[in-house]
Amino acid sequence: MPGTIAAAVLDPEDQLNRAFMALADPVRRKILARLALGDATVNEIAQPFTVTLQAISKHLQVLEGAGLITRSREAQRRPCHLNTTALGPLAEWIENYRLQAEERFARLDELLASTTDKDSPEKEKNNEHQHNNH
C-alpha cells in the first residue's frame, strides 16, 4: 500500500508502540483472540461483531501494520494469521517491568521486616516496663 510503512522495517521501539496502540482497542484484542484459535478470513472474523465488514477490515489493517497478524492467499481465500513472533517483544517488555516491580516489593518487604525486627525487642521492653509500673 502506498504511504504505509511495513512493520518489518520499523525500529523495535516503533514496533512496540504500534503493537500496544493496536492492542488498546477491545475489538482488535477480540480479533487476536479469535486468530489464536486458528486462521480465519475477514468474513469469518467479522461474524460475531456488530460492526461493518469495512470496520473489521480497518481493524485488520491496524493489526497487520503493527505486525500482529499476517495475511496469505489460498486460491480465492485471504486468511489472516496470528503472528505469534510479534507477541514476544510485547511479553518481554511487560515481563521486564513486572520483574522490576517485584524487586522493589521484595526490597520493601525486607525493609519492613528489618524495621519490625528492630522494633519488636524495644516494644517488649516498653510493655514490660509499663506492666511493672502498674
UniProtKB/TrEMBL annotation:
The keyword DNA-binding applies. One of its GO terms (molecular function) is DNA-binding transcription factor activity. Residues 10-102 form the HTH arsR-type domain. PANTHER family: SLL0088 PROTEIN, TRANSCRIPTIONAL REGULATORY PROTEIN. Signal peptide: none annotated. It comes from the Bacteria. It holds the Pfam family HTH_20. CDD domains: HTH_ARSR. This is DNA-binding transcriptional ArsR family regulator. Residues 113-134 are annotated as: Disordered. Keywords: DNA-binding.
